[in-house]
Amino acid sequence: MATAHIESKLEDIAPIVLMPGDPLRAKYIAENFLDDYKLVNQVRNMFGYTGYYKGKKVTVFASGMGIPSIGIYSYELYKFYNVEKIIRIGTCGSFNKDIKLLDVILSSGAYCKSYFDVLLDGVDVDFIKSNAELNRQIMNTAKKENITLKYGKTITSDVFDLYCDDAERFRDNFPDMNFLSVEMEAFGLFYIANKLGKEAACLMTVVDSLYDKRSLSSEERETSLNDMIKTALESII
Ligand code: HPA
Questions:
Q1: How many CB atoms lie within 10 A of CB 181?
Q2: Whose CA is closest to atom 2 on ligand 1?
Q3: What are the residue ranges in the chain where pLDDT is below 50?
Q4: Residue 225 and residue 152: Cα distance in Å, rounded?
Q5: What span, in angstroms and rounded, lies between the C-alpha atoms of 26 and 59?
Q6: Overall pTM > 0.85
Q7: Is the distance from the beta carbon of residue 76 to the nearest atom of ligand 1 less than 6 Å?
Q8: With a 6 A CB cut-off, is 183 part of the ligand 1 pocket?
Q9: pLDDT at 139
Q10: Interval between CA 183 and ligand 1 midpoint (Å)
Q11: Are 74 and 199 in contact, with CB atoms under 8 Å apart?
């Protein structure tokens, strides 16, 4: 079986999927965290790998960037490959003073002004929650692993906000300043999951901040990303 964008066999996709944005991060996770893994998709180099984490079958499948891309991959995986849960593991920015670079954030839901929902279903939704049960599992796991998670709302943007000439003007589109993170995919994932009656969650590592301008070493980044990946993997076993 295959879909417009995925060449995998039905049995080669696990019911639980971890979804980084970057295909090479999918490869990194398979190589560093999974046993007996195999490459199950390379259409458009959007790599998917299926393997085992502590005996549990899991697929790591990249989403690409932005709502259109994650919208396609999450739809095809849920709808045609019987996937039940997708945990996005990505990076994000922040313009919240309480959030520091390399904090790991769990999204309670995503706010978005995109046209995606209008085009797909003729509805205009501004905020979609992530799955409460999946979030509970992730929070419990983080506690056990001694990994601090910040839990709160995400802005999903159609533009990479750092490329706006005026960061303050971008921020002023979102007068409720309780948003913890800004990224470009969570709304698409949560919207498709809700539409299809499936589960979705989103973990993010903060790599850009309006208030924290430290430059990060690659070692610091890797440690924080590994914490996030470990939290996601431990929460599905
Ligand atoms: N904004 C949007 N998406 C992102 C960012 C950001 O600053 N960093 C990583 N993904």
A1: 29
A2: 183
A3: none
A4: 19
A5: 9
A6: yes
A7: no
A8: yes
A9: 98
A10: 5
A11: no
Q: How buried is residue 26: exposed, middle or buried, by Cβ count under 10 Å (0-12/13-18/19+)? A: buried
Instruction: Give bridge partners of residue 93 from the DSSP assignment.
Output: 182, 208
d(CA 197, CA 184): 22
Cα 118 from chain centroid (whole Å): 22
| Contact assessment for residue 8 and residue 2, using Cβ atoms and an 8 Å cutoff | yes
Catalytic residues: 208
Cβ–ligand 1 distance for 185 under 6 Å, the answer no
Q: What CA dihedral angle connects 140, 176, 197 and 203, to 10 degrees?
A: -40
Q: Which residue bears the tokens 């709808």?
A: 79
For residues 152, 69, 67, 162, the Cα torsion angle rounded to the nearest 10 degrees is 80
The residue whose CA is least distant from atom 9 of ligand 1 is: 92
Q: According to the model, what pLDDT value does residue 176 have?
A: 73
Say yes or no: CB of residue 52 within 6 Å of ligand 1: no
pLDDT for residue 153: 97
Measured in angstroms, how far is the CA atom of residue 30 from the centroid of ligand 1? 24
Task: Give distance in angstroms: CA of 130 to centre of ligand 1.
Answer: 19
Say if residues 29 and 49 touch (Cβ distance below 8 Å).
yes
Can you give the pLDDT at residue 210?
A: 87
Best probe residue, ligand 1, of 159, 187, 208, 209 (max atoms within 8 Å of C-beta): 208
Distance CA 44, CA 9 (A): 17
Tell me if residue 82 falls in helix, strand or coil: coil
Show the domains of the chain with their CATH numbers.
10-235 (3.40.50.1580)
